[in-house]
Amino acid sequence: FVDHLYAALAQQGILTYKDDETLPRGERIGPTLLKAIQESRIALVVFSENYADSSWCLDELAHIMECADTKGQIVEPIFYFVDPSDVRKQKGKYGKAFRKHKRENKHKVGSWRKALEKAGNLSGWVIDENSHEAKCIKEIVGTISSRLPTLTTNVNKDLIGIETRLQDLKSKLKMGSGGVRIIGIWGVGGGGKTTLASAAYAEISHRFEAHCLLQNIREESNKHGLEKLQGKFLELILKTKNVVVESEIEGRS
C-alpha cells in the first residue's frame, strides 16, 4: 500500500521521502530520517496492525508529533486495517506491543503513548476490507496536493495589477463545474498575456491529475513541426520520456 501511495505522490510531482531501511534492534533513529521529518510540510503516518511492535516507528511518530507542535507540521494519519481507537488508547495488538515495551523501553513508553494518543485523535483515512485502495490513494493524493502551497511565485505577486487579472481569469475558468473550458487571452504583444497565463497555471495546476505549460507554440511548430510539440505535450501529461509522434493525426489521437 505504501509503495503504491508513494508512486502516486511522486507522479503528482510531490517531493516525497520514504525510508526503506529497517533499524537494527537497539539503534537510534538516523539523522537522515530526522532531517527528512523536520523539513517536511506534511507527514503521512500509515498505522498497520504491527506498527506499535517497532520501537523505530514509535520513535519516528514521537518526532513527527513534536514537529507538529513546534513547527506546525501537518500530520495525516492512515489507519490501515486498524481501528483508530486501538491506536488512541493502545488496545488490541497495540496494547500487547506496549506490554512488551514496558519491559524493554520503560523510559520511552510515556512519550510513545502521548504520540499515539495525539495521532489517533486526528482526522484521517480508515482503510479496511470494504475500502477500494486505488480510490483511497487518489483521494489522499488529492488532499495532500490541496494542502501544499501553490506554485505562485513572489515575482507574480509583486507585478502591479496581476492579482485582479488573475482572479478575473480564474472566475472565467469556473473551476469544479465539470466539462472542458478553453479561455483565449487576446491583446498586443508585450501586454502580459503569457505572464497572466503562467500565473494562472502556477496557481491551479496542482488541482489536476496531469498538466503542462506549452509556450511559443507558433514559433516552435514552424521551426520543428507540430509533431514535436505533440510529443512534448504527451511526455508532460503522461510523465514519461521519449514519446515519438510520427504524424499530426497520430498525435491528435
Automatic annotation (TrEMBL):
Entries under InterPro entries matching the protein: Disease_R_plants (IPR044974), NB-ARC (IPR002182), P-loop_NTPase (IPR027417), TIR_dom (IPR000157), Toll_tir_struct_dom_sf (IPR035897)
Annotated TM spans: none
Listed GO biological process terms: defense response; signal transduction
Protein name: TIR-NBS-LRR resistance protein
Keyword annotations of the record: NAD
Domain TIR as annotated: residue spans: 1-148
Gene Ontology terms, MF aspect: ADP binding
